[in-house]
Specification:
The chain is built from two helices and six strands; from the N terminus they run H-E-E-H-E-E-E-E. The chain has 117 residues and is an alpha+beta fold. The longest helix is centred in the middle third of the chain and has 14 residues.
C-alpha cells in the first residue's frame, strides 16, 4: 500500500497479473484486466495526489471467490487525503488482496466501502 501514490504508481502495475480484477465498493465499480485497472488508478491518483494509507492490520485469511486458489491477505487501513473542496479527510477501511502463489502477482483486489465519518 505504500506504493499506492501518484508518484510511485508505475511500481504498482507490475504487481498485477494481466487478467487481474479489482472491485471497489467505495467507488461502486469493478475493473477487469491490467489496462482497465490502470485506467481507473491513474485518474484516481491524479484527482487525489496526497492520498496515503496507514496499514493498521494485515494478515493471511482463508481463500475465497473469485480466486479460491490464491493466497488472500486482509488489510485494515486508515486512508488520509484532501477532498476536492480542500477538506482534510480521514476514513478507515478494509481490503482483500488475492495473490497467485505460483506467480506472486495480484489476481484480485476487493476494497470494502470506507467506514462512515
Amino acid at each position: 500500500m505504500r506504493l499506492s501514490t501518484s508518484a510511485t504508481l508505475d511500481q504498482v502495475f507490475p504487481l498485477f497479473a494481466d487478467d487481474a480484477s479489482y472491485m471497489s465498493e467505495s467507488l461502486g465499480s469493478s475493473w477487469t484486466g491490467l489496462g482497465s485497472i490502470r485506467g481507473m488508478m491513474e485518474p484516481f491518483f491524479a484527482k487525489f495526489p496526497d492520498i496515503r494509507w496507514e496499514v493498521t492490520r494485515m494478515g493471511v485469511v482463508a481463500p475465497s471467490e473469485p480466486a479460491p486458489g490464491a493466497v488472500r491477505v486482509e488489510v485494515a487501513f486508515v486512508r488520509r487525503w484532501t477532498s476536492e473542496s480542500g477538506e482534510a479527510m480521514v476514513r478507515g477501511g478494509r481490503e482483500w488482496i488475492h495473490v497467485d502463489p505460483a506467480s506472486g502477482r495480484i489476481v484480485h483486489v476487493h476494497v470494502a466501502a470506507l467506514d462512515p465519518a
